[in-house]
Amino acid sequence: MPFKNDGFQATYKQLNYTPPLCPTEAIPLSDNGKLSSPNYPISNYTASQNCTWIITVPAGKHVKLAFTDCALGSCALDCSSESCTYVEVYDGASASSPSLGRFCKGSVLKETFSSGQQMFVKFHSGSALDRGFEAQYSVLSVWPASMILNETSDVISSPYNPRKYPDNQTCNWQITASQGNRIVLEIGPINIESCGASGECTCDYLQVQNGFSVDPGASERICGSHQKIKYYSMHRSLNVMFVSDNSMPFKNDGFQATYKQLNYTPPRK
Ligand SMILES: [Ca+2]
């Protein structure tokens, strides 16, 4: 049936269109991959941008973030001014989670690790422009232990304890008993900066993983002041993490803890 219908018409015109460099909502990411500032690596980032990402890994796993490149415009060394360009990493699902570190020009680019299954990353650009950053994120099955301890008994503590601890610290210990044994960890006294509603510990905290405790004061994150909290490992290993954020350095004593191995006899049926 040719020449029976009119078809259609449409008009088009050119528009000046600048795509938004950073969406308002955090960009969701999962598993392993790379993230970078806008325009990277083709040209410099643009001033006054806020890009955010939320990285989610399966329950029970952790996120690792490592910089592969970082060239940010100059700013004061503590990265505190909003006119600075910086990357900030948070231990959780948003920028109200505890900070694992803020990185600007001149910062030591340490790797960061989430204690749970989510990590939030924020890139903020100030007025001084440069190439930007690129970072690799990946899934970890266990907290990385910067210290692996397998002595039958030893003492661990926050940095400089019994003196007050500095800011921007992340310390991890994996304490492992010999095959079939368990670990008992006695923490105290504890004096850690306390922020957020009770139990939230949004600035500095101590966290014990793969263990249990019946003591008052034991919670997912520990902060504030406590005399003694005792943990037992559920299996061979106990993981301990101490995090301090970038506020109020040298105000609190931190903690010290003693661990020892326990002979463990599985319950008989
Ligand atoms: Ca602090």
From TrEMBL:
Keyword terms, alphabetized: Disulfide bond, Repeat
CDD domains for this protein: CUB
SMART domains linked: CUB
Top-level lineage group: Eukaryota
Organism: Desmophyllum pertusum
Protein name from the UniProt record: CUB domain-containing protein
Matching PANTHER family: OVOCHYMASE-RELATED (PTHR24251)
Annotated ranges, domain CUB: 22-140, 145-262
